[in-house]
Design brief:
Radius of gyration: 19 Å
Oligomer: single chain
Strand content: 15-25%
Structural class: alpha+beta
Number of strands: 11
Number of domains: 1
Strand order of the largest sheet: 10-1-11
Order of helices and strands: EHEEEEHEEHEEHHEHEH
Length: 246
């Protein structure tokens, strides 16, 4: 089995996703697919991409939920982007029998060495976030790499050294940075908006953070109402479950 780095990485590179401003346009999904299909790493292959039942591997997906605030009132749509969270206690790494899944000691990014991967799927079973997918053609597991071939590419202008999903987001709902540095813009945003971990009760300590939706503005005849606490029991999934349950 693979071991995690013995000490926390000095840098924790990850994403901060603003659920208040994400509009579900899928630009991050498409740009991720394009970059990881035509970029430097092994391509994301598809099966019958122009047929009646196309299928393939995607490293980033956006889910939508129709929810209503507690106590009634107007509903709203919350879009929830999901990709690898690059957890500090990444069980997907520790269950890997070949060492294909590993966590970088320098920046905390979790990657897959496709030359070692046998496609057993244990890492996908261990990931509670559903962030890994088996490439149907290559027969190996694939996941978000934080576009490591972009963020460390010194031939790119510094302002372009960010994941493709961040660069393409028209609403600026996605942010990238060092979450271990409290002075970084990403960490300051988490502190200011009450950013939270997804499913913190599992103890995986994901690097990526989510910013909760703000309460909706109401007219004078309908005073503002606070949305439920997304940092409460069950994290985001518990919040969605409570809203959908009325």
């Amino acid at each position: 089995m693979t071991s995690l780095p013995p000490t926390p990485p000095p840098r924790r590179l990850g994403l901060v996703i603003d659920l208040d401003t994400c509009v579900g346009c899928q630009a991050c999904v498409v740009s991720c697919k394009q970059w990881n299909t035509g970029g430097h790493p092994a391509p994301l292959s598809d099966v019958e991409p122009y047929g009646r039942e196309p299928s393939g591997a995607w490293l980033n997906r956006v889910h939508g939920y129709e929810v209503a605030p507690a106590g009634g009132g107007c509903g709203q749509t919350v879009y929830f982007p999901k990709s690898c969270l690059h957890c500090e206690n990444a069980a997907c790494v520790t269950v890997c029998p070949t060492g294909a899944s590993y966590k970088r000691a320098a920046d905390g990014i979790v990657l897959v060495d496709e030359a070692k991967c046998i496609g057993c799927g244990l890492c996908a079973w261990a990931c509670p976030y559903g962030a890994r997918e088996l490439d149907p053609v290559e027969g190996v597991m694939k996941k978000c790499t934080l576009c490591i071939d972009r963020i460390y590419n010194e031939t790119l202008p510094e302002e372009e050294r960010e994941p493709a999903c961040v660069a393409s987001c028209p609403a600026r709902a996605r942010h990238f940075g060092d979450l271990a540095d409290p002075a970084s813009p990403a960490a300051r945003l988490v502190a200011a908006r009450g950013g939270f971990d997804l499913m913190p009760e599992l103890g995986y300590r994901p690097t990526n953070k989510y910013l909760p939706p703000r309460p909706r503005r109401q007219g004078d005849e309908d005073p503002p109402r606070a949305l439920p606490d997304v940092a409460g029991p069950g994290g985001l999934w518990g919040w969605v479950d409570r809203l959908l349950g009325g």
